[in-house]
Amino acid sequence: MLRSRITWLAAALVAGVVISFVIPLCLLVRTMAEERAVSATNSDAQSVAMIVAGVDDPASLPAVLAPTLGARTATTTVALPSGQLIGGPTTTGPVTTGQPSSGPAQFPEDARLLAAVRADNRSMATTVDDRFHVLIPVGVADGVAIVHSVTDLGRVRRGVYGSWAILVAVGLLLVVVSVLVARRQSARISTPVVAMAGVAHRLRSGDFEARAAATGPVEVVELGHALNQLADRIEDLLRIEREGAADLSHRLRTPVTALRLDTDQVEDPTVRARLRSHVEDLHRAIDSVVADARRPSRDAMGGWCDARVVLADRAHHWGPLAEDQGRMTTVIGGSANGSASGAAGESVTGEHPGGEHAAYRPALVGLAARDLADLLDNLVDNAFAHTPEETPIRLELHVVDGLVVLRVEDGGDGSPDTVAFARGESGAGSTGLGLDIVRRLAADAGGSVGFERAGLGGLAVIVVLPLIERAD
């Protein structure tokens, strides 16, 4: 998602900046801590050396140094000329500050450093085994005393871990804050874009009143305006198309009506009947062309309907014509409820939705009621147009394995081999346009169209549509 990508990008950028600052800061804190420790060690050694130099009686040094050595940052000892150590640890354990003690130092390098300074009689500052030593020789009454201050640099470094933790915590806090801010800001971009995608899907599905809200950054607002202008243009084009189709219908039907009247003036009955048949075919072709021209403005709308209701409605619509032509029309509403048939010229529905059948189950398909009505009208019109009067017609609807099967058959002399299925093909006096509309409508709903020999003896057209769940 766009929002997640923007958030992750901001988090990565801020994390990179934080890392580039936190790591050097951590190293700087450690270096500064070491420098402070070294400076404090030097200061402690020099302070104690000044005190030792100012005492005339070496025997009083422990008492004088007692309060001083205990307050030092570094571990400080004073090695007297006699070898006694004042302060600091020994091999036997810590010595109480101010009490004389003897014996070698706890660390072997301390003894070596003391010996080196005593021999050279000059100050020394060095690091041995991660311990910083400052040794200052001081002249006293009975010889040379050495002030020795030591700081454990390893312990100093371990002491900065708390500062490091604070720096890392601050860095993580910055990353978290940046993620929250980026997520909020990205919503100002992603939310309008997602809404525009929804508007585009609604336009694709036929909701031409859908418009995008002009919110968000300037670029997103401009995109919304462009999408709305595109929707307006599509709506204008569809309106022009519908007006053109209506005008085409009006302009074509007028000369066809005049032609029909002229055919009635032909004296030869055979020629008159043939011309009248051709005029009727032309009239149906015009109706199909007009319906097909209007189709794009409705196909995109989608929708759903109860096929049982539409079947009953169209059977009722065609009933008067069937009665005039003496056709026996059978309507079967479902395989589970049987069928009913009427006498010649009757239109009988075997299952009426909402009637006396308590266990009525709708057969919902993914076509709008008007589109399914057009599909059935094209099939029934073909049956009426290409079969003689008094030819029986049967309409069936079955629900089988999640499929709605519509079957329209007649008792004429047609066969599956003579069907004009594609636009522009001709066979048995048909343009194929009506069946092409049927095929496309069925395909729009995810279905298919097939042909076979009818039980009545003529042609059976089978339309299979997926059964859908009830739409809210």
UniProtKB/TrEMBL annotation:
Name the Gene3D superfamilies for this protein: 1.10.287.130, Histidine kinase-like ATPase, C-terminal domain
Q: Which domain of life is it from?
A: Bacteria
InterPro entries reported in the protein's UniProt record: 2C_sensor_his_kinase, HAMP_dom, HATPase_C_sf, HATPase_dom, His_kinase_dom, HisK_dim/P_sf, Sig_transdc_His_kin-like_C
Name a single GO cellular component: plasma membrane
Species whose genome carries this gene: Candidatus Phosphoribacter hodrii
Give its E.C. classification number. 2.7.13.3
Catalyzed reactions: ATP + protein L-histidine = ADP + protein N-phospho-L-histidine
Annotated protein name in UniProt: Signal transduction histidine-protein kinase/phosphatase MprB
Output compositional bias ranges, type Low complexity: 337-347
Chain segments annotated as transmembrane: 6-29, 163-182
Kindly list the cofactors needed: Mn(2+); Mg(2+)
